[in-house]
Amino acid sequence: MELAIGIILGLCALGAGMAMIAGIGPGIGEGNAVASACEAIGRQPECRGAVTTTMLMGCAVAETTGLYAFVIAFLLLFVAPGRFVNILVDTMSSLG
Amino acid sequence: MKSKERSFRIVDALLLILTLLPFLCGILLYVLFEPSSEGIEITGARIYFTINMPLQNLPITESQVNSWLVIVAVFFLCLYLTHGLSAEHPTRRQHFVELAIEKSENLVLENMGEYFKDFAPFVASIMLLSVCSSLLTLIGLYPPTSDLNVVGGWALLVFILITYYKFKCGPVHYLKSFGEPVAFLAPLNVISEVATPVSMAFRHYGNVLSGTVISVIVAAGLQGLTKLVFGNLPGFIGKFPFLQIGIPAVLSVYFDLFSGCLQAFIFAMLTMLYIATGFPEDDYKEKLKKKNAKLKLQESTN
Predict the structure, then answer these.
(1) A56 touches chain B (CB under 8 A)
(2) Structural domain of residue B263, as residue ranges?
(3) Which residues of B touch A57 (CB under 8 A)?
């Protein structure tokens, strides 16, 4: 029983860590967006305001996939272990 | 004249007090209901009390209470800012309000076009609500925007608006819009339609919540580090939180101030863009033209 609970907790933590690998995507995407924005401002400094606003918008949209991963990692860390342990205890007691 | 000025000032002060009172109430509620606990932990919104309902019990949570407090505070703030408007003797306050309203109207006009220019109050109120909710962390209250239910409600409202404006050309046109550009892509279009409110809600909620989580983790780590480094010192110095001074505040500037304001702006911006791009303006104008022509024809035959 203790072993099973230990495995559940360990795998939940591992899954959370693996879910956050998705953070690579938004990192690359936002880096590209900001690099392009810097280039654009360097070329045309007068449209700095519009470029910055558009860049922030694009960054926010690119961030979404990373946030999905974060939500899943959060659920795996704080919600899933309790649920899984409850299920385990229920099945064990029903089995006798 | 002088007595009038006096009553004006009293009302002014009253409105200002009523603006600040909800925050005070929130802090008081928080202190009264807080089970004093040692250490730092991450929990969801606490439940103040539950109302018994026939189908399911309705829990009144911290996020609900706090969002209502924000609504009340914003309401009285608007009353305070618009109190004593005059065309002859505009005060500093009035100039500020006029600037804000002009800015929001320009923003809406720029992003949504001429047809939607009446959307400025809606967009501005969503932005103000979101900013005030996110900035509640600065006074130590639970921010309602880090609860998925609150932000999900806003996203649902925006989704209803988007669908309403897509329906303007009739249900047939709405259903046809799913079959574009090719008919067999319809399932994907349905998915992307549903993904709009979901992604909006998750974006706002995830950003605010991730800021909170990272702040808490850093604070807990600093607590442990302080204990490790200075814990062996004798007496009072051993318990003093050296490393926890100042460092979490730097994170708070980014995660609470910058991120909170940015997310509010982005939520309002996406609201505008989704509504404006979802609305088939050309088709609607054509339809109106046809309708008017038909009406004229009927009138001439009569």
Answers:
(1) yes
(2) 2-32+59-83+92-301
(3) 266, 269-270
Answer yes or no: is pLDDT of B206 > 70.
yes
Q: Is residue B51's pLDDT more than 50?
A: yes
Chain B interface test: which of A20, A57, A77 (most B C-beta within 10 Å): A57
Report, in angstroms and rounded to the nearest whole number, the Rg of chain A calculated over CA atoms: 22
Contact residues for B49 (Cβ-Cβ < 8 A; gap 6+): B59, B60
**Three-class DSSP category at B41:** coil
* Pair B73, B22: CB distance under 8 Å: yes
Terminus-to-terminus CA distance in chain B, angstroms? 64
- CATH number for position A36: 1.20.20.10
Does the beta carbon of A24 lie under 8 angstroms from any beta carbon of chain B?
no
The rounded Cα B10 to chain-centroid distance in angstroms is 31
State the ipTM, two decimals: 0.74
The band of B1, judged by pLDDT with boundaries at 50, 70 and 90, is very low
- Asked whether residue B130 is assigned to any structural domain, the reply reads yes
Number of domains in chain A: 1
For residue A36, what are the domain limits? 2-95
Contact B286, B173 (CB under 8 A): no
Per-residue pLDDT tens over the stretch B136-160 = 888 888 889 988 889 999 999 999 9
Report the alpha-carbon distance of residue B132 to residue A25 in Å, rounded: 31
